[in-house]
Amino acid sequence: MISKHYAASAIAVVSVAVLLGLAASKPAVAQAIAVPAPAYAPADPASQETAVLSGGCFWGVQGVYAHVKGVLHVYAGYTGGSAATANYETVSTGTTGHAESVQILFDPRVLSYAKILQIFVSVATDPTELNRQGPDDGTQYRSEIWYTTPQQSAVAAAYLAQLGAAHVWKQPIVVRLDPAQPFYSAEAYHQDFLVRHPENPYIVINDLPKVRALQMTFPEFYRSVPVTVRPVS
What we know:
Layout: H1 4-10, H2 16-24, H3 27-30, E1 49-55, H4 58-65, E2 71-79, H5 88-91, E3 99-106, H6 113-124, E4 132-133, E5 136-137, E6 143-147, H7 150-166, E7 176-179, E8 183-185, H8 193-196, H9 201-217
Parallel strand pairs: 6-7
Antiparallel strand pairs: 1-3, 1-6, 2-3, 2-8, 4-5
């Protein structure tokens, strides 16, 4: 399995100018995929709901949703395995059942669960990559939607079926849909990593383009000042 920390250190010797050039040369990463909005998007009068998503490295997924209006909090963490193995070094072996994930607390009166899913498949992750995402390989980097309510299950299932019928991607969609399991917050140094380390080579190449794509594709939902787990000076 390839650790993103290994990947980042391997390219750290490359100049920032070269890194920016590499990022610009990868349109599949830098540009969102145009996908239809969910046809089934029922109203939710609650003031707060929770969504849990796995879509590759949690640095980037957390960084994307931190910039989405209606998101109250977003945490990087692990889900799909046991509490005993919910730590980065063990999860990185790819043998724990865990996936790097984010837990999103959001106001459904501002941001619907359906819109969260649209942003997920068009900006945050490539839904056609099986047990990997970008430079990261292993089941811990799989794409998975963990529904927390029956309504979320229905919305997600309907949307995945809609996208499959629309043939948006040449390759089949491999996003899994499962009931939510216990979510374990990741170590403190992982939280808000994109916001705190925007010049990190891994972030420059793989994740900042996603934030730019969010701003361009969903301008009405983009917030320039991100929500963070801890205050950022």
